[in-house]
Amino acid sequence: MLHYSPSKINCDSPMPEHPTLQPSPQHVLDRTLSLAPMMGCTDRHCRYLLRLLSPNTLMYSEMLTTGALMYGDVAKFLRHGDDEPCALQLGGNDPAALRACARLVEDAGYQEVNLNVGCPSDRVQSGGIGACLMAKPALIADCVAAMLAEVQIPVTVKTRIGINDKDQYEHFQHFIETVYAAGCRVFIIHARKAVLGGLSPKDNREIPPLKYDYVYRIRAEFPDCQFILNGGINDVASALEVLPRVDGLMLGRAPYANPWLLAELELALYQHRSIDRLAALDDYLGYMARQVEIGEPLKHMARHLLGWFTGIRGARAFRRELSTYMFEPGSGVEVVQQALIKAGLDQAPELDIPPSFAATASGA
Ligand SMILES: Cc1cc2nc3c(=O)[nH]c(=O)nc-3n(C[C@H](O)[C@H](O)[C@H](O)COP(=O)(O)O)c2cc1C
To answer: In whole angstroms, what is the distance from residue 299 CA to residue 322 CA?
Structure first.
């Protein structure tokens, strides 16, 4: 079932010349907690797995370029299941192409389409997409307007707080203002600038300082928008500290490295106790077996399990076993079962009392 109700804002064509101030369906998805889009990580298998622990997280796909989608195998690229609510992230800079792709995304059953204006990689930059587009707010406004004109699902933008020397608050404010005028009402802000040409993507996720105050300030200036804060939220305590000042949090590396963090956040934010790790893994084993049967290599699914037992005795042995054998051609789910047994993790009844639940239960 979709978690939003369509409204007029997204279906008028041609593109709006003036900002529309009608209530937008963009507000209807629960954005308290999101999983960040991550190339090479948040594919459909990963989203299926993490959904087992967290019914409330809004999942984001890896970035998909408009070129890949328009000239590639659409069904293959957009295939997904049991990961809803899920947003698909597009990379592009051509309003017509983005409009066409947004239609494909909606038709494929995603609940949101997101535009990447934050990726700093050289390859992405040489294609004129990602973070370099922060220098072209009017073009992003055209892109967003084109997408909004095509689909009913929310159209959102994920961006940084600046690029290179354009990192003053006023530049950021101008960018948001311009894209807002095209109808965008949900912004996901990775709260550090991108240094283009000077830093690797990895360094660009670590070196430029986080400036959450930009997000707090812009949120106060655009009260009919939602601002989702991203960057450096690594545990329940920091999530609880920051959440009251924004409309939601997006987490990337931390929950990928330790999926159980999502179970802890479910408990802290929704008072929802997830199924335990072994029960979820059992479900995923069934999923993997079905996927292997239709020709998907085991390694595509098993790699998302490498952090499954993070923080638990045996985690390292499990990871070692799994990464040794999952790449062997023709391997099946028995590789995961063997890794569990070898790591002594196949029977662990005490495994899954989340720390925050244990603290609550003991009155701490
Ligand atoms: C391996 C990896 C791949 C990423 N790929 C994307 C991507 O495709 N699109 C995007 O907008 N951000 C991408 N990011 C950035 C994340 O979405 C997020 O903004 C960043 O990791 C900061 O959040 P965190 O501190 O919670 O990890 C990627 C990050 C990582 C670590």
So the answer is: 9
Residue 106: C-alpha distances to residues 51, 276, 346 (Å): 20, 33, 40
Atom of ligand 1 minimally distant from the CA of 190: 19
Cα–Cα distance between 285 and 332 in angstroms, integer?
10
What is the rounded CA–CA span in Å between residue 163 and residue 66? 23
Q: How far is the CA of 141 from the centre of ligand 1 (A)?
A: 23
- Contact status, residue 151 vs residue 168, Cβ threshold 8 Å: no
Class of domain 277-342: mainly alpha
Residues 293-323 pLDDT 10s: 999 999 999 999 999 999 999 999 999 999 9
Ligand 1 site: residues with CB under 6 angstroms?
A: 36-41, 62-63, 89, 116, 118-119, 158, 190, 205, 230-233, 251-254
Q: How far apart are the C-alpha atoms of 69 and 67, rounded to whole Å?
A: 5
- pLDDT, tens digit, for every residue of 194-228? 999 989 999 999 999 999 999 999 999 999 999 99
* Span(s) in the chain for CATH 1.20.120.1460: 277-342
């028995």: which residue's tokens?
Answer: 334
Q: Residues spanned by CATH 3.20.20.70 within the chain?
A: 8-270
pTM of the model: 0.90
8-270 fold: TIM Barrel (3.20.20)
8 A C-beta contact, residue 110 and residue 83:
no
The mean pLDDT value for 40-57 works out to 98
| Predicted confidence (pLDDT) at residue 24 exceeds the cutoff of 90 | no
Q: Which pLDDT tens digit goes with each residue over 318-345?
A: 999 999 999 999 999 999 999 999 999 9
